[in-house]
Amino acid sequence: MDRRTFIIGVALGVLAAPFAARAQQPVKVYRIGFLGFGSRETSAPYLKVFEDSLRELGYVEGRNITIERRFAEGKIEQLPNLLAELVRLKVDVIMAGAAFVYLPGPAAVAASRLTQTIPIVMFQGDPVGSGLVASLARPGGNITGLSLFNPKIAVKQLEMLKEVIPRLALVAVLQNPTDSSHALSLNELDVAARSLRVQLQVFQAREPDEFETAFAAMTRERASAVMVLGDSTFLLHRARIADLAKRQRLPSVFVQREHVEAGGLMAYGANVRDINRRAATYVAKILKGAKPADLPVEQPTKFELVINLKTAKALGITIPQSLLLRADELIQ
Predict the structure, then answer these.
(1) Residue 172 to residue 247: CA distance in whole angstroms
(2) What's the predicted TM-score (pTM) here?
(3) Measuring CA to CA, which residue among 206, 233, 209, 241 is closest to residue 76?
(4) Is 152-270+304-331 in the same CATH topology as 30-148+271-301?
(5) Where are the domains of the chain?
(6) Which CATH fold would you assign to the domain 152-270+304-331?
(7) Sorting pLDDT into bands at 50, 70 and 90, what band is 3?
(8) Residue 251: which of 139, 320, 172 has the closest Cα?
(9) Which of 18, 178, 250, 304 is placed for a possible disulfide with 271 were both Cys, Cβ 3.0 to 4.6 Å?
């Protein structure tokens, strides 16, 4: 080897050394906590959307992230315990999205206080009204995510009922008076009802043992249909509510598709799969250093209409073609 070749070789080695050192540096592996309300099986479709979206953003389990998965098996009382477990594991961020849909306002706030430092990405009906965030634009704490609340959704639901039942006269509205978002929905509904020439009557239920009384009162008042406002208690007991509506021969409309899967007639609301996809972008931003306090809470942009044709047939209702063509899913 001549002197010139030796010098060039040494120089190249010196230049390559920093790159080799950087290449050998260990990749940081972040820990993500995932809190699901249902079982592993029922949460699977939404978890897959979340994981796939993270992968598209460069976060792959086994390479640069690990996911600690916890499932409440449909038991609301288990959610705070599981959240506390994720906090003890000192995960980098907690995706407690749909779990916060099921927690009523005070319980959601209590659960969120289990940590003031670990970022939490949530979904919630009315995060401002429930006290989870200071405002949608500036959450102000360690929680951000997506708001599922939009009072205009209730207006669209009323319009759909009018399409199904052109001679719609009296619509019963099932409300939980402890839900902060319901008052805003009712204000919007009052305005819409006048333009549609429909009368509304509100029936309240805080607990499951009040459902029977509320539906019996709807029948006495000769309601033509029932709107069930979005609420964690109503969602948890969706099968019972759907059964009561069918027994009382009341066409029903809901916010969440799970009500229709349980036997309700129609649901119109935010597309939960899209919400999970968007939640992944929050997690990615936080892992890159963004502060939850500075990430505005988003509102839904994609909505879905689900219709149960089996329930329609049982009620003797023909769904108009215009509505069938707009439906995202028809349950046979």
Answers:
(1) 15
(2) 0.79
(3) 233
(4) yes
(5) 30-148+271-301, 152-270+304-331
(6) Rossmann fold (3.40.50)
(7) low
(8) 172
(9) 304
225: left (phi over 0), alpha (psi -120 to 50) or beta: beta
Chain segment 254-295, per-residue pLDDT in tens: 998 889 999 999 999 988 889 899 999 999 999 999 999 999
Which two tokens mark 160?
């759909």
Judge contact between 276 and 250, C-beta under 8 A. Answer: no
Residues 6+ apart with CB under 8 A from 64: 27, 28, 29, 30, 58
pLDDT in tens, 94-152: 999 877 776 766 777 878 888 889 999 998 877 887 788 999 999 999 999 998 877 78
Task: Give the pLDDT band (50/70/90) at residue 9.
Answer: low
